Amino acid sequence: MARLPRLVIPGHAHLLIQRAIDRQPIFEDAQDLELLTEVLRLALVDEQVQLHAYALRTQELLLLATPAQPQSLARLMQTIGRRYVGAFNRKHGRSGTLWNGRFHAAPVEPGEPLLATMAWMEQEGEPGAASSAAHHLGSCRDPLVTDPPAYWSLGNTPFAREAAWRERLSHGSSSAQDARLRRAARGGWALGSAGFISVAGASGRPAAPRAPGRPARCNASH
Q1: How large is the angle between the packed helices 30-46 and 72-80, nearest 10 degrees?
Q2: pLDDT digits over 36-94, tens only?
Q3: What is the pTM of this model?
Q4: Strand stretches in 38-196, DSSP E
Q5: Any bridge partners for residue 131, and if so which?
Q6: Rounded to an integer, what distance in angstroms lies between the CA atom of residue 122 and that of residue 55?
Q7: How far is CA 137 from CA 118, 161, 190, 212, in A?
Q8: Span 14-196: which CATH code?
Q9: How far apart are CA 63 and CA 214, in angstroms?
């Protein structure tokens, strides 16, 4: 079966997951992480992508990003690979890609589905990793991040929004949610309500997996 094209909806947030190849660390020290962060910052500007949340982990990159154009996400990841991987390889005496194939992406409905995806991404991760959690909790201002309207709706003041976000993160995430989000990204399936999924699939590219079972039999014409 031919591989489906990515489902990209300009102006909507997308969950992006890029895994490392063969358990190769994506960064090995603080200098690597600093370079990766700077490369990401510049690539976001160059490719007209807004970043709402992220988690840079040793085995994977997680991004929640809104593209301006249909090809913006692909160009973003290509730019990161071109600028970062070469420098990483030269520093650490290696060659070849860091990535385990193509990145995965899933459109995310605004509102609660977007907030749930942000919170999953910003849950406490591994030591030495970087994420946008500190930004949304008010510990710092992160130049990578553009807050989405759903985050602004959490309160009328920064303190109220940060408190609401702290409360949300305190609940953690479930293994079922982790599996659901990763499955959607792998398949390129839209995350959200039935209405959003219907709109996302209007281009003709399926926005949700087909229901199990055989397709309905067509009526033969005579």
Answers
A1: 150
A2: 999 999 999 999 999 999 999 999 999 999 999 999 999 999 999 999 999 999 999 99
A3: 0.90
A4: 49-56, 60-67, 104-107, 130-131
A5: 55
A6: 7
A7: 12, 8, 27, 42
A8: 3.30.70.1290
A9: 36
